[in-house]
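Cont'd.
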Amino acid sequence: MAENKEKVPRVKMPEQDPDVRRRNFEEVPLGLTPEMAIKEASRCLQCKKPACVEGCPVSVDIPGFISKIFSNDFSGAISKLWERNALPAVCGRVCPQEAQCEGRCIVGKKDAPVAIGYLERFAADYERKKGTGEVPAVAAKTGKKVAVIGSGPSGLTVAGDLLLKGHEVTIFEAFHKAGGVLVYGIPEFRLPKEIVASEVAALEKMGAKIETNFVVGASVTIDELFAEGYDAVYIGVGAGLPRFMNLPGENLIGIYSANEYLTRTNLMKGYLFPEYDTPIARGKNVVVLGAGNVAMDSARTAMRLGAESVKVVYRRSREEMPARTEELHHAEEEKIEFVLLTNPTQFFGDANGRLTGMECLKMELGEPDASGRRRPVPVEGSEFRIDCDLVVVSVGSNANPLLTNSTPDIALTRWGNIIGDPVTGKTSKRGVWAGGDIVTGAATVILAMGAGRAAANSMHDYLTLGW
Amino acid sequence: MAKITAREEMAQGTIILNEIEAPRISRKAKPGQFVILQADEKGERVPLTMADTNPEKGTITIIYMVVGKSTARFRDLNVGDEYFALIGPLGKPTHIEKVGKVVCVGGGTGIAVLHPITRALKDAGNEVTTILGSRTYDLLIMEEKMRAASHTLHICTDDGSHGHHGFVTNVLKDILEKEKIDLVVAIGPIPMMKFCSLITKEKNVPTFVSLNPIMVDGTGMCGCCRVSVGGTTKFACVDGPEFDGHKVDFDELAKRLASYLEDEKKSLEAYKKSNA
């Protein structure tokens, strides 16, 4: 498949037209056709020592699944993916491929890299649409019981891996729907909820029990779970405590954390109000503070909720914006404006406490800071006003103390994150592992899945060999 | 799960009591904590502070006023029906200790929240005086239960239909003039809590209030319920719901509670129409 690699350009993903999609919640990329996928697969060099695999936090056999697509064996491709990744339909959509597999692709040194993400998504969607409902076979029952707290990407990965190894798994979820950030955070137009539901259904088919509306730390403690017969516990509760900027006027009506804005819209289906009961403010002039993936999700959601203008206000420059390249590109196509090197200083409201605008300062880049990025420094006297009726604060999350407060024997960092062994995810408490954002602070879906994978291996050793 | 085991209408049908099956929550819950309920998949998540728990029976009791679509939907649930979602117990429990003389002030459905706290304060050895208020006597709830939970009970009605003619704040003021009070607990409508706190602040009497801001998840994840307390932002769901009444910015809370007034009206009207 390598002979005409130079001639085949990287496939272009068919997408909804930006002018249409900026007003609907349907998925933006439409997916590759089988012909497109096979052609794109032909661009893979099938490297003997594939750098792309090294770039993948869960070490998917990338040349392996691509060669199956190339030979028209799409079911074979999904089986290859499942060997290392329980959520390929999700990862194909939300992984930062440019910083991982595709960033390491040898083809990419001279040409555009192989579209690994698109191909992963293609294989997973093909299998799901075929609707055979096939799931991987599970090993003989071990008789061991595992509690997984949180049903986000890391929890689902742990559950999938341990089910495969024959353990009994119960997933505890505080919300009424499983999926964690995949259902409350990432919008429908980027990750259709039907996909998450089908991934969760597959786990249930493999034997997972899912307890929704269950807050571990409130309804039950971890010690009580052990007393109820669980042999091991995995904590994957996410970061889950939104950061605000502590600026004057921040409690005005119309200022949301990204968590609230997205939860109301995605999980509670506020965009379908009043068919659904939870309202969501529909801003005319919207400002999103921050420039990560969550900020892009918020900005693009605001546009779909009918905004006239949406501005992303960010204190550094374009280069430092942490969102995936594709998200930035999609946002710009949807007429979202980036107001860079700008930092808010205060918010203004009317007599009813409703937001009317904000004051900002221009910034310039100074010396590099601890993160290696050039530190933004305010330009004196550069204050200016932006009129707005909705602000979404998307500047990260701190660790939620609800669970850790009820489990004082788990060691925490001074920021309240759980200290987990970087290799195994073991915490300071016997029989308890942790991974994902509650350990690392806000990061990506795939890193949380990588942590889940490592913890599941370590938990399996513990359950079969001992601590 | 979350099946309604008993239902009662109070205050001429404007206030509803539900006893709900929730064995785990009933075993864990302490006075002052709340739950979040959702009637069906399309419903809002509504926070309600528990009025009672019965660990032996495995039930909790909530008491709510019918004000909008979500509570109208709750009202239409009968004994045997189930809530779609029920989580808890959430928030910090009331700090109960023996301090001496305590005055508990309640209004509206705040009385339901006040009841387990009052009982616990009495059980802890405090001398408890309770002041309850309502617009008119027919709308007053839980009089006998509150009488049993207190040493002395005063009733106030705005229209003079029973007890003292006037506001709870008048009676509170009188009591504070006459004797040294060690703690005041005020739970009810925001103006009531605000003016009780203003009065007790003058006399330097420690006062706590229980707040009911709008919430979504109830576990600290969204920040919808943020309130200003002593100039810093707190999340009522995880830092509260009880706060020092002298430090709460009640005006900001009242404004934030009105965030969705227009949407709420629209939603209630649509619900009434679909039921007509």
